[in-house]
Design goal:
Elements (H helix, E strand, L loop, with lengths): L1 H45 L4 H21 L10 H25 L5 H7 L3 H12 L6 H19 L6 H25 L8 H23 L1 H6 L1 H8 L1 H9 L1 H5 L7 H24 L2 H23 L5 H50 L7
InterPro entries: Sugar_P_trans_dom, TPT_transporter
Organism: Coccomyxa viridis
Membrane topology: Multi-pass membrane protein
């Protein structure tokens, strides 16, 4: 009876863990899809074609919320030296800024569906970057896998009706910066023993990202924003901003649309997405996120067709199916490798436990006296 009770208890615990993991995955997919579609709408349809400004707003909002959470004691602070911040956080913040800015900018030129197809190159970029930095092991099998993914994306690109070179370049650079960021997180943070929760991560990284974004913003978007007298009035005075955004006729007549509820809700969604990313990886694994990302990409392709009437050709889908197969095979191999490592660790721990009593027995005389 006790054994049956123990088995039932274990089954309940496993089922509860599966439900919890499913919640994290669903939350991340929902928030990620929401932010992507929301950003696409704001940048391409709403009337605010300023990706750097939008990204800076996200970083400022996240930094303020994280600052309040830490300073008010809701989240414990992390002791970090200036050297660690400059050597670890600043490079990651710069890459994070580049990823978000360039990724958002690509939505002004390309459809959501095509961008999701291009994002299938992420495993290729991560593997290549990992090999360069020495944290991935090169193998012919993995290389072949990466070639299959690349060929699939190339075919999907060839079949894209609305192929815009600048948009593709922006998205590919975004993939490159993101893969480098993920690699540096392992090298600079994990090897230093830094354990940051979602709030403290944004507490340190968001201000650095905001600072880096301000440089291209000053040279690219600042003059365009301030050249519109109504936009400059809205941006220059908080009272005027609130007044102007509440009166529809005011901002509708302006070339630059600024509506407080829209931008606040967009920033809240972006902040929630950042939290869900770290929760998903922290509670499950990066591999789980990669597998969930495959599901998310298919959902976004379908939603892009339904919402934005994006045109997806048979060549698009055929190429993406090839890339999709390559990504699935890559994730499968990663899963198998993870199981092998876990089995080896479990065997080593078992051997240590079995070896320890024998050592004690050897040191203890048969009569029990020293």
């Amino acid at each position: 009876m006790k054994e049956k009770g123990a088995v039932a208890s274990t089954d309940k615990a496993v089922f509860a863990q599966i439900l919890l993991n499913s919640f994290y995955v669903t939350l991340w997919i929902t928030l990620s899809g929401t932010v992507i579609l929301y950003n696409k709408w704001i940048l391409a349809y709403y009337g605010f074609p300023y990706p750097i400004s939008l990204t800076m707003w996200h970083m400022a909002f996240s930094a303020i919320l994280a600052f309040l959470c830490v300073r008010l004691g809701f989240v414990p602070a992390v002791n970090m030296t200036t050297d660690t911040y400059l050597r670890a956080i600043v490079p990651i913040g710069a890459l994070f800024a580049g990823t978000l800015w360039l990724g958002n900018a690509a939505y002004m030129y390309l459809s959501v569906s095509f961008i999701q197809m291009l994002k299938a190159l992420m495993p290729v970029a991560v593997f290549t970057t990992g090999c360069v930095f020495g944290i991935e092991t090169f193998s012919a099998g993995t290389l072949f896998n990466m070639v299959v993914v690349t060929i699939g994306v190339a075919i999907a690109s060839y079949g894209e009706i609305n192929f815009v070179v600048i948009g593709v370049i922006l998205q590919l650079i975004s993939v490159a910066t993101e893969s480098t960021r993920l690699t540096l997180v392992q090298i600079l943070l994990q090897r230093r023993g830094l354990s940051l929760n979602p709030i403290t991560t944004m507490y340190y990284i968001a201000p650095a990202s905001f600072a880096f974004l301000s440089i291209p913003w000053f040279f690219i978007e600042a003059r365009q924003l301030w050249s519109d007298p109504k936009a400059s009035t809205l941006l220059g005075s908080p009272v005027s901003c609130l007044y102007g955004c509440l009166i529809a006729e005011y901002w509708r007549s302006s070339e630059v649309h600024l509506d407080i509820p829209i931008f606040v809700s967009n920033a809240v969604a972006a902040f929630g997405l950042n939290m869900s990313v770290f929760m998903l990886i922290g509670k499950t694994s990066a591999l789980t996120m990669n597998i969930a990302g495959v599901i998310k990409d298919w959902l976004l392709i379908g939603l892009s067709v339904l919402i934005f009437k994006a045109q997806v050709t048979s060549v698009n889908l055929g190429g993406y199916l090839i890339a999709f197969g390559g990504v699935c095979w890559y994730n499968y191999n990663k899963l198998q490798a993870m199981k092998v490592r876990q089995a080896a660790q479990a065997a080593a721990q078992k051997a240590d436990l079995e070896e320890e009593p024998s050592k004690v027995t050897e040191r203890t005389p048969l009569n029990g006296k020293p």
